Amino acid sequence: MGRSRRHFPSWFALLLLFSISSILIADEKLALQVDPGNAPTLRQLITVSRERADIETVRSAALQQKLESARGEIDALELAMVAQFHEVLKVPSARHRVEIFTRSTGESALGTLLDHQRGIVITTADFAPARPTKVVLVKLSDGTVFRGHHRLLSKLDHLRVIQLLDWKVVDGHRPEKFDKAPVIGSFIAGYDRNGALRTGTVSSNVRQAVSNHTRSERSSLAVLHRKLGTEISKRNTGFPRVFETDLALSTPGCGTPVFNSKGAVVGVAISRASHHSTLVIPVSRIWGLLKKPGA
After folding, report:
1. Which residue in 7, 115, 150, 166 has its CB near the most CB atoms, within 10 A?
2. Are 274 and 215 within 8 A, CB to CB?
């Protein structure tokens, strides 16, 4: 069998033509001296090449200008959205966003005041005092301070639900406003530890997630499974069903309430999934925990 004839792709031919044109443009005099008889044709080719280059330059400049304009519009919309969130969240933030301190160590963490009638607060597992009788101090965003004891209601990986004993209903606070878990693409907002408002969108639906904590070689659950020759499953870690967001919260920022664009609480940030994403447990899931027997 004879060899098949090799066919060059069309883009190669165009590249070759462009290369030849560039050489002719760069050294027009030399090209004319080599073949003086074809001078008119060469000049025409060079003129056409220059015109095309000028057109592409104009198009590139126009496209760059459009891109810069679009970036400016996006930045302006983002600033307007953040400003709008600030206005919408003034009252909800003051009602739900709290900072919790322990009197003995002085350590603090962010939390979510979920129920103003019963004094129920959500905070992170790494912080929540282990002894129910330990005195805690809760500071609301509006400056209101409560001191008293607490009891543990529910215990999940990365999450603690506590009730403040001897809680007094805070005057001026209206009934809580909650909403179901938002859909993918919905705008949401939360606060970092320093009080900075972070905005983002929902990137995944409610799903079961595995805790990084229970994957640790040092966790008691991991040690037990290693001795038994088994693996940690999603069901026995106690990690709740969550949805993922692109809120860039710091680890100390976990525990903050997460709001939708209407100012309703849709969940509590409980863990960072990465540097640019945060896991949020839906508030409906938390209410389900509180309704369990013994809660």
Report:
1. 150
2. no
Please give the order of strands across the beta sheet that includes 97-102.
Answer: 145-148, 136-140, 97-102, 108-115, 120-123, 159-164, 150-156
Residue at which a domain ends, from 114, 131, 164: 164
Strand partners, 178: 265
DSSP secondary structure string for all residues of 193-236: TTS-EEEEEB-S-SEE---HHHHSTTSHHHHHHHHHT----SST
Q: What confidence tens digit (pLDDT) does each residue in 32-87 have?
A: 555 555 556 666 666 777 777 777 777 777 787 888 888 888 778 777 777 777 77
Query: Domain for residue 269, yes or no?
Result: yes
Write the burial class of residue 71 (CB in 10 Å: 0-12 exposed, 13-18 middle, 19+ buried). exposed
Pairwise CA distance, residues 40 & 46, whole Å: 10
Q: Which domain holds residue 22?
A: 11-88
